[in-house]
Amino acid sequence: MLMLSSQLNTYLVIGAILFGFGVFGLVRRPSLIGMLIAAELVLCGASINFMAFSHFLAPDPTTGQIITLFIMAIAAAEAAIAMSIVIAVYRNYKSIETEDLVELNG
Amino acid sequence: MNPSLFSPEGLAGLIFLILIAVTMFGAVVATCSKRLIRSVTGLAICFVGVAGLYYFLNSPFVAMMQLLIYVGAVCVTLAFAIMLAEPNEAKVARKITGLSGGLAALCGGAMAYALGYAAVHGEWMAAATKINDGSVKTIGVNLLTQYSMVFELVSIVLLVAIIGSLVLARQGRDEE
Asked: ipTM of the predicted structure?
């Protein structure tokens, strides 16, 4: 048990579990901000995979770290955009629950 | 093979287990709590745990960036969004039937199981010989040589995100 930190599989399984939690939250959450939180978990699971592969297998260990930094930048941009969309939606609908946003439902 | 608990390796393993527990606890709080401000707190806890995992992966720079960007910026942004939009999930949660929670758990659990199965049973290539040590200095050199184009593109993306979020959040304010 105490040697888990030096095995590739540990990190891959942690990343998979975080990804699963993210999908679970995306399906279950009834509001936009809750879904945004779950999406951050999905991105985090992907980053852990990149970091693990770059530390254990890749010839150049900086590749995964740089890709993780780019994922962080994209996630920050996504959070900023999503927050302003949430505020704009709230101003128009007085609600950010996914049940109320059905105007394009057809 | 198994080090004793009080050797340096054993203590490091114990800290690693604690970090995994913190990460999983944060993920559970982030997805399952009733109030959204609690789930943002859970997200922050989860990111602190993940930063510790990055430290174990021999990349303290990315761990520090994880703390700065995710815990410091993204979680605070989410907290502001919650304060401004005051979502009321408890009201909606009562309308949702019990089946959807089970289906969501099935979805997430199936995906996690499939990915974990592929990770454990997959045949990965043999570890290649390292061409550098992955230190902060080599990250900086690679960012400005091999990945300079992506670096510039990401800065443009961030600039567009700033301007776009300002435009989106400002719309409709003049009419009031």
From this structure: 0.89
